[in-house]
Structures are given as structure tokens and as C-alpha cells.
Amino acid sequence: MKIALPDAAGRLSDYHLTGTPLPETRLPQDAARVVYSAAHVVADPFAAADPSGPACLDWERTMAFRRHLHGLGLGIAEAMDTAQRGMGLDWPTALNLIRRTRAELPEARVVNGVGTDQLDPAEARSLDDVRRAYMDQLDAVQALDARVILMASRALARVATGPADYLRIYGELLAACDHPVVLHWLGEMFDPALAGYWGAQGFDEALDTVADLIETHAAKIDGVKISLLDKDKEIALRRRLPEGVRMYTGDDFNYPELIAGDAQGFSHALLGIFDPLAPAAARAVDLLGQGDVAGFHRVLDPTVPLARLIFRAPTPFYKTGVVFLAWLNGFQEHFVMVNGAQAQRPLPYFTEAFRQADACGLLRDPDLAVARMRRLLALYGVA
Predict the structure, then answer these.
(1) Residues in Cβ contact with 213 at an 8 Å cutoff, skipping those fewer than 6 apart
(2) Going along the chain, which residue ranges are E strands?
(3) C-alpha to C-alpha distance for 119 and 154, rounded to whole angstroms
(4) Beta strand 110-114 with 75-78: parallel, antiparallel or unpaired?
(5) How does pLDDT run across 129-144, given as a tens digit for each residue?
(6) Distance CA 248, CA 231 (A)
(7) What's the CA gap between 280 and 302, in Å, rounded?
(8) Within 13 Å, how many C-alpha atoms sit on residue 122's CB side?
(9) Rounded mean pLDDT, 145-174
(10) Which position among 30, 260, 306, 336 has the lowest Cβ density within 10 Å, counted as fewest Cβ atoms?
């Protein structure tokens, strides 16, 4: 099978598909690692609302993808940045999404994003404003008996004056949590508004603050997801975690090494890249649980070039690559995104993502993927 793909100058050359679609493997409940996929949402292409307005979702396709993830035995990180939270997905729609997932998949392992995105950072005047915004979302999610991941807050980054302010706000939030939660340390490469989070400009000071917070409130913390795209920083925090607190890798560049671990420990996973890589993630971690470390790396290592492409700078637009692959693989009938985000990457990005997905067996129906890639090329004027 082949398709003519353009280079950056528009010159066409035949690309011959070589990948073999990965078989779907269900991850057992007692898997070697806890694995969450942060899941994307499917926009309603027929909605009359402008892309810049409130999000309009195709609920059936959005929920079908969550059923797909659950069918593979993966956990779901709901209403997170992969779902375009803070980049098109507003809080009312996010809460509706959380509610639907809780109702339709009551047995699934799900953590749900709680933040302050209903509060415009420019309108935040005090820490109390931030606390109220967090508490409103926390109360709404816990009323569903749903588990929580505490997301980073742009408003808190704006009003906090130092580490003590972060320790105060997070301490009050954790005291109000009904069940142990996941903390999320999101780097400014994902959201520039989070620069200086934890009240520190340097990593070492921020690390001390986070480690202090976790040590003080360990009983209320299931784990921490760190998304800094730096394996050494993740390992540094991992080695300071109290017993019983999990490290969830959020490193979409170095996840195989971090999940496999070393002599001093390993990371579980809560990753946006495990949305398009879900079959590979399930297969690889299943092999790891069987003691087949080489097999784990044989499945997961070849996916890293694709992940690095999808999450390349400007990193916030990685969601475009995630949804593109969902469309190629037939999980939705269109490549339209909330907030018009399908326009946030250039054509060479899509052609390379197509090649890389084929190379690591992530085009589950190559005929369909080729047909849809040709439709996209025609939209760009490629004959």
C-alpha cells in the first residue's frame, strides 16, 4: 500500500506503508503499573456556535472513545489538558463530561480534573478567590463520588507571592478531599501562564516545596503527575516521595525509560500521549507484568519519535496531533476540534505523524488511514 506525500516544498513522493497494526491487548487489573490515558474530546462539527465560543461536543463519539480506553484496561484522566481544558473546554462542559463518564463507566478507574478555570486569572484578586474557585469545582466533582486530580491554576500563579501561598491553598484543598488525590505539576512548556509555579523560578526550590507538601499531606495524596519533559527532574522527585505515594509520569518524551524504572524505583503513567498510543501502552505494560522487559521496550520504544513529534514546541498544540490520529483511526468522522485547534499545526507535521504512526503499528486500519490522509491532502491542494 502506498500514498503520495508532499515534502516541505510540495514535492510528491510515494510512501509505502510498512507497519503491522498492533493487536489490542486488555491490561489486567493487577497490572505492573497503574496507567491512565488523558483522553481527548470530539467536537460537534454541526454546531452553529463559533469555535471561539463555548465548547460543543459530539457526546456519543466522545464517550465511545472512553469506552475504547476502558476496554483496553486503561484508566482515564478526564477533563484534563488533553481534552483542551483551558484551551476551549470550559468548566460547565468539563463537569458535564465528568458526570457522563462517571455515569457510563462506573467501574472504570478515572481521575477528574479539578482546577480554577471558571475564574479569569485577570479577575483573581486574592488567594481567597483562588480557594473559592477550586472549592466550587472540588465540591461539584466529589458530589459525584468521583476521584480528583488537582490541576495547576493560572489564577494561583498570578496572585501567589511565594511557596507559602501554594502550601496554604493546597493544604486547604487536600483537607477538603474525600479520597486521596493526584497532584499535577504542569510545566510552562505546556502552559506559559504557569511560569514560576510553586512560588519558585528554579526547579530545586520548587522541588522542595512540592516534596514538603506531599510529606505533610501524604495520607491525602494518591500520587503526583509531573509534566516537565525532563526525566531527571521526575526521578529527583520520585526519589523523595513517601512510601505509598505514586509517581505518575507526565513525560511524553521519556515515558518508556521512566515506566520501566531503575534499581531505586519506577513511575506509573498518566499521559496525554497514551490517548493515541493506547494499544501500545496496554500491550507494553502487560508484557512488563509478565517479566518481559525486552518485550515492553520492543513495543513502546518505537513510539517515542511519534510522541516527540506530537508534543514538539509549541507544546500546547499537541492536542491537534492527538485528534488527528483519532480521526485517521476511525474514532471520529471528522478532523474538527474545539476552538478550531485543527489549524494549529502545519501540513508537514501531519504527514510526518502519518509516517510515524505507521512505523510503530498505530494505524489500526491502514486502508481507512490512507483514504483519510488523501482527503486531508486534497484540502491543502495536493492533487
Answers:
(1) 166, 167, 170, 171, 183
(2) 2-6, 12-16, 35-38, 75-78, 110-114, 147-150, 181-186, 221-227, 246-249, 268-271
(3) 9
(4) parallel
(5) 999 999 999 999 999 9
(6) 12
(7) 10
(8) 0
(9) 98
(10) 30
